Amino acid sequence: MSTRRLFLRQLGTAGAAAVVASNARGLSAPAAAGLAGWNEQPIQTAEATSEPMPPEHPVAAIQDTETPEQRDARMAWWREARFGMFIHWGLYSIPAGTWNGKQIPGIGEWIMNTASIPVADYKALAPKFNPTGFNAHDIVALAKAAGMKYIVITSKHHDGFAMYDSKANDFNIVAATPFNRDPIKELAEECRNQGIKLGFYHSQDQDWTAPGGAALKTGDHQPPTYHWDKAQDGNFQQYLETKAIPQLKELLANYGDYPAVIWFDTPTPDMTPQLASQIVSVLNQYPKLIWNNRLGGGYKGDTETPEQFIPAQGYPGRDWESCMTMNDTWGYKSYDKNFKSTETLLRNLIDIASKGGNYLLNVGPDSHGVVPLEEVVRLRQMGKWLDVNGEAIYGTQPTLFGAEAGSFSDTEKDKDGKPKFIPAWDWRSTTKADKVYIQIFKWPASGTLHLDKMTRKVTGAYLLADSARKPLKFNQTGDSIDVQLPAKALDPIATVLVLNASKVGAIPPS
Ligand code: JFZ
């Protein structure tokens, strides 16, 4: 697979727009040559899950040394959670997708790179940043109302602006803006009060305003650094040692029990195993911490991070989390109104749960610190469904079936030349030790739901949305079962059928 393929694959639709846009300007250079390493990483780990960690790690990470039992304990809350809120918020919410009167294509938080904004001009946004509409209580309450169990917020994105009170670098929300508040601290307090986990997205590698920070290519930026302003030039190791690592230490030390998660991003070849190991030494001081597969330097981390897509069959044997936007940007863009429907978002959550993953769904607060209304509305609707049907999502195991998710085409190929996966959207399934849940999207016209390969003996059936829990008639012969449903779905998006069916005494597959 070409580097460019890998690059686009990881970018997903929202990010790909930026790359396509750079092509439209007639520029051809291989996109982000440096990305191959980290893009290949999830693919390798997905296939080789039981292999021991490569011995060449200069510093062993917690994943290298812990027992399977310790790992299960460390990951327990995360596996139970299934649904989290991603928050991309920073100075880029001021231009909100427009620079010098021009709408800049691509994802909003990349505007500095995509529009080649000089460092001084970008830094001049800070004195204008006064997001007095930010209310940590309301955002945490929104996440809870949506049924989300954790939040991951950008403590620093690629633009290098820290959204917290950093002593290590004064390009931050307390030192450089009139706002003079630490939203990360306020969020940490609210998350503690309202009982939800908090994690930090920290761009450890790309930093477009610190000398020596890395930049991935867009437009006509030139190798090897892809910088567009002399002020960005410097030494990467020095950047790490004077900014990225000191900030990581602050974030890990200053917010009590949090962060529960560190979400790294976009490692480049600059992040050698040796440099990454300096970060791992810091992470190792926090044995409860969960961190993703985007550190770099060959470290696999805890989680696969498919971006803007749901893997056809999950990542068997690996923890994973699909991160997705509701529209086509992570950071706020005033004119991006291409919002997915609540139906799509909820079915994504169900699809992901049925494959054993988590859904990290993004919101992009505006320059006042306010979450756009379209996002609030969708989250509240998702929460309403979860209020009734949450037990079919939280703490569940993947489907016993599998074929319901779709099938690989005999004729069509995907962009990598492999058989294209065509998802089916009739139903999904999750399981617990004593239950099988069927989330029905397409209500059977016959009134009967037929399932093959039902390998557990069913002792009862009812609909979660039926508060009376009226028993439904069913007929199981061997491993096939027919359940008689009421004439109409109880929920237009997904009606959950519960089958009481214990793991113990499973029927051997025919
Ligand atoms: C990354 C970030 O760059 C993006 O801004 C957002 O935070 C998302 C969750 O994670 O997505 C990517 C990854 C790789 C590239 C671009 C966006 N890339 O290779 O240019």
Overview of the structural elements:
By secondary structure, the chain is an alpha/beta fold. It is 28% helix and 18% strand. The chain is built from twelve helices and 19 strands. It has helices spanning 3-24, 36-47, 62-65, 68-81, 111-114, 119-123, 136-145, 183-194, 236-253, 273-283, 342-354, 373-389; strands at residues 83-87, 98-99, 102-103, 150-156, 197-202, 261-263, 290-291, 303-304, 319-324, 358-363, 406-413, 419-423, 427-432, 435-440, 448-451, 458-463, 474-477, 480-484, 495-501. The strands form five sheets. It has an eight-stranded parallel sheet, sandwiched between helices. It has a four-stranded antiparallel sheet with strand order 13-14-19-16. Strands 15-18-17 form a three-stranded antiparallel sheet, with no helix packed on it. Helix 7 (136-145) crosses helix 12. The chain is globular and about 70 Å long. The chain starts with a helix and ends in a 9-residue tail after the last strand. 4-nitrophenyl 6-deoxy-alpha-L-galactopyranoside binds at residues 7, 10-11, 15, 32, 35, 88, 107, 109-110, 216, 265-266, 307, 323, 330.
Which structural traits does this protein have?
510 residues, alpha/beta, eight-stranded parallel sheet, four-stranded antiparallel sheet, 12 helices, 19 strands, 28% helix, 18% strand, globular, disordered N terminus, binds 4-nitrophenyl 6-deoxy-alpha-L-galactopyranoside
